[in-house]
């Protein structure tokens, strides 16, 4: 019976329903590096980088050292680099040092453009991604800024050969900002600009001149339609394109630094020689550019390689500054007005921060389950998560709190957000390459829990940095509810905001292991309410080095006595404790008010409180009574739905 009660309580707390659904498998073709996922989750700037410069643009070891140096430049500008490459049939957004070295040394790497992606993936091959393939991967991951050396274009005699780079059509169909040194002079730059115009691509030169650069030279003889002077202007241009939803990109052309442009004429002469030789040897298509670059490097005795590296460094610096400016502008807009990405817009001054789970309950049709074989039974799926349950209850009771959480970008996330349309889920971030939290309970026919499994890693992405973008909403809230699924650093941050702005915080500890989180520091002193069970209440006290019973009592009188004793030290700072006692009811401990406990939030927190007597002149008399006395109210038989009404009372006007 005790196990059955435990299973029933667990299911009630998780909010199990009978909604059933089937889901497909997660997309496993794209792998996002954890550092990139983390930065995107926290709305920090990320810069995508291509990898054909590693596999086809430079000889080893210059390619590897340049790739690492470019990533270091991006980091120095306080952005996160995300080099894109195909490794053994998987598209990687963000590469480890080992993966960079693998691409740099690999002599059989493909040059992977849009058309080549399916083949490379189907064959499990590796390769460097061109501008077009990198744009696809960056857009898929949610990265708006991509830095490269130079883009492809219309080849000379392209009006007859129709040799036009896929980079141009990708710019016309993928909303990514491409930062480059323009177009290589081996191409027909005039026709390239005309083609970009036809594709609806916005082209702007970055800097003091409208001259469109030609890779090694700051001037090509053509001008850009538009011009941006600094990172802020470039970021506004990108934001405008993204906001309009045009589904086309923007090309930001950055001239090569002046100190390296002096060698431009020498390099241009070498290019003409190399173009002539390529034509004489019958070299065509994708083999032209690598041949010419190597030939030019030989003819210029390495000066072209030095200039190539210099312009890539410069592009990385400029692109990172633009990405940072775009990130700042985006975060400012979100702070001013939180967008309604999903569900209802909030008209409430309540914020809930916590987990979303997709729950699976597998119930056997026999008294006992036989492990190692298939048992007859039924499986139902529902949506839970303590934070989600609280926000759901409040929404159904007439409030629409802002709910802040994290999910994967998968079918589970689609389903749960669709189910939560009545809620304001605009604070829920969807993360690539992570799974939406899931929980599976296997129970017997009688309801006894046999096994439970959980995948909750995504909750660790509800970080302090991510939550901080909602500081305006937090600082003006009348109540903030936290569950124990979120990281300790996030709890500490929210408590610091509460302390600064006099906000009431309700902490739902979730389970005995997570109950300790606010009590690892003085953050707990900023809490106003908490709703632990007796085991979680013991954990809280133990974390504060307060002695607790080695064995919890079983009789109701003893349970109440222990609960009151353990509540007393916490109420030195908390306003009220709601101790859940399972079948024995709920114990409310807090300020004595007309024979009951005052649940209403305080308009002004006190800096010091006593258990008996007033705190300061004019302060309301406060009393914590022993069990059975008026200050401790026992309400037998309260269910989870009744607890939701307690939250409602907290949100009412005083």
Describe the overall structure.
The protein has 654 residues and is an alpha/beta fold. Helices cover 38% and strands 19% of the residues. It is built from 23 helices and 28 strands. Strands 1, 2, 3, 4, 5, 6, 7, 8, 9, 10 and 11 form an eleven-stranded mixed beta sheet that branches. A nine-stranded mixed beta sheet has the order 16-15-12-19-20-21-22-23-28, sandwiched between helices. The chain has a four-stranded mixed beta sheet with strand order 14-13-17-18, with helices on both faces. β24 (592-593) and β25 form a beta hairpin. α4 (62-76) packs antiparallel against α5 (97-105) and α4 (62-76) packs parallel to α15 (303-336). The model is unreliable at 1-26, 337-343 and 605-654 (pLDDT under 50).
Main attributes of the structure:
single chain; 654 residues; alpha/beta; 11-stranded mixed beta sheet; 23 helices; 28 strands; disordered N terminus; disordered C terminus
């Amino acid at each position: 019976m005790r196990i059955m009660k435990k299973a029933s309580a667990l299911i009630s707390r998780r909010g199990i329903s009978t909604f059933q659904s089937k889901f497909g498998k997660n997309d496993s073709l794209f792998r996002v590096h954890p550092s990139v996922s983390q930065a995107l989750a926290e709305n920090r700037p990320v810069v995508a980088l291509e990898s054909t410069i590693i596999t086809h643009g430079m000889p080893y070891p210059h390619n590897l050292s340049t790739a690492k140096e470019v990533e270091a430049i991006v980091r120095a500008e306080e952005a996160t680099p995300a080099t894109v490459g195909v490794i053994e049939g998987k598209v990687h957004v963000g590469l480890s040092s080992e993966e960079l070295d693998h691409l740099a040394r690999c002599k059989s790497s493909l040059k992977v453009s849009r058309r080549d992606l399916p083949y490379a993936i189907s064959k499990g091959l590796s390769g460097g991604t061109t501008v077009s393939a990198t744009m696809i991967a960056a857009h898929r991951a949610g990265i708006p800024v991509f830095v490269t050396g130079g883009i492809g274009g219309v080849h000379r005699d392209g009006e007859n050969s129709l040799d036009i780079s896929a980079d141009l059509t990708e710019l016309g169909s993928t909303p990514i900002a491409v930062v480059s040194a323009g177009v290589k002079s081996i191409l027909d730059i005039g026709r390239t600009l005309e083609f970009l115009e036809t594709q609806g691509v916005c082209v702007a030169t970055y800097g003091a001149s409208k001259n469109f650069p030609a890779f090694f030279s700051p001037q090509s003889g053509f001008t850009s339609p538009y011009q941006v002077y600094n990172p802020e202007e470039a970021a506004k241009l990108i934001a405008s394109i993204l906001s309009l939803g045009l589904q086309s990109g923007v090309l930001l052309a950055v001239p090569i630094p002046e100190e390296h442009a002096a060698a431009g004429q020498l390099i241009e002469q070498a290019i003409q020689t190399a173009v002539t030789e390529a034509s004489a040897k019958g070299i065509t298509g994708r083999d032209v550019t690598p041949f010419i670059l190597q030939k030019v490097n030989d003819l210029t005795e390495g000066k072209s390689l030095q200039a190539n590296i210099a312009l890539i460094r410069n592009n990385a610096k400029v692109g990172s500054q633009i990405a940072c400016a775009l990130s700042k502008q985006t975060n400012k807009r979100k702070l001013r007005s939180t967008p309604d990405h999903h569900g209802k817009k909030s008209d409430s001054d309540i914020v809930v921060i916590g987990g979303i789970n997709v729950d699976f309950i597998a119930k056997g049709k026999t008294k006992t389950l036989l492990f190692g074989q298939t048992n007859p039974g039924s499986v139902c799926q529902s949506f839970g998560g303590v934070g989600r349950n609280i926000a759901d209850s409040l929404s159904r009771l007439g409030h629409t709190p802002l709910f802040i959480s994290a999910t994967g970008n998968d079918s589970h996330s689609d389903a749960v957000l669709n189910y939560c349309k009545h809620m304001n889920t605009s604070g829920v971030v969807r993360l690539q390459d992570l799974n939406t939290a899931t929980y599976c309970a296997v129970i017997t026919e009688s309801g006894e829990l046999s096994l439970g499994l959980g995948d909750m890693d995504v909750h660790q992405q509800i970080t302090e940095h991510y939550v901080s973008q909602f500081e305006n909403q937090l600082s003006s809230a009348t109540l903030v509810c936290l569950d124990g699924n979120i990281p300790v650093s996030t709890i500490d941050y929210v408590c610091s905001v509460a302390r600064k702005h006099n906000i009431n915080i309700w902490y739902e500890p979730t389970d005995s292991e997570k109950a300790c989180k606010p009590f690892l520091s003085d953050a707990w002193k900023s809490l106003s309410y908490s709703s632990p069970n007796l085991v979680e209440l013991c954990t809280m006290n133990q974390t504060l080095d307060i002695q607790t019973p080695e064995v919890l009592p079983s009789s109701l009188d003893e349970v109440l006595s222990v609960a009151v004793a353990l509540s007393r030290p916490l109420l030195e700072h908390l306003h009220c404790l709601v101790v859940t006692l399972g079948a024995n009811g709920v114990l409310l401990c807090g300020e004595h008010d007309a024979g009951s406990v005052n649940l209403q939030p305080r308009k002004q927190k006190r800096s010091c409180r006593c258990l008996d007597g007033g705190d300061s002149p004019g302060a309301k008399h406060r009393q914590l009574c022993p069990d059975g006395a008026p200050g401790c109210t026992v309400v037998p038989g309260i269910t989870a739905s009744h607890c939701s009404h307690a939250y409602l009372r907290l949100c009412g006007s005083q």
